[in-house]
Amino acid sequence: MTIETRTSDLPVCQSNAIVDDGLLIRIGIPHRGGKPAFHAFNEDYAAMVSAAAFWNGKTGRFTIPDATDLSEIDFALDSAGFAAMMQFQAKGRQAGIAGVYPWTMEQYVELASLSGASRVALRISANVTADFGNVTDSAGLGVARC
Asked: Which of 63, 94, 98, 129 is the most buried (most CB within 10 A)?
């Protein structure tokens, strides 16, 4: 599909992205278990869960439950960019990634590898610049498949 416009200051002849295999829509689950995860399991929904749902601020570690409906569904692990900006940054400088997240990159990668997520997202907010080795990502979007 091509969209054309007569306004000279707007982009013209733009094309929509081609989605060959269909579009997968994931439902957001705000917790690592409970009714939303149970419902997603029962309905066979793909889901996305924020890393913040697994974070235990008292222990300073991620906690993965031994049994959860998330273990039985296709879920993506979200990096909690919005949660970081709204919750963690409001508490002041954090000990982890970019001074915004309370967890380190090592802790996040460990969560990603142990959580059972089919996809893992890393997003650094446009307001944050983080340096991970050779990569400086201030716009932010990297996705890795586990």
From this structure: 98
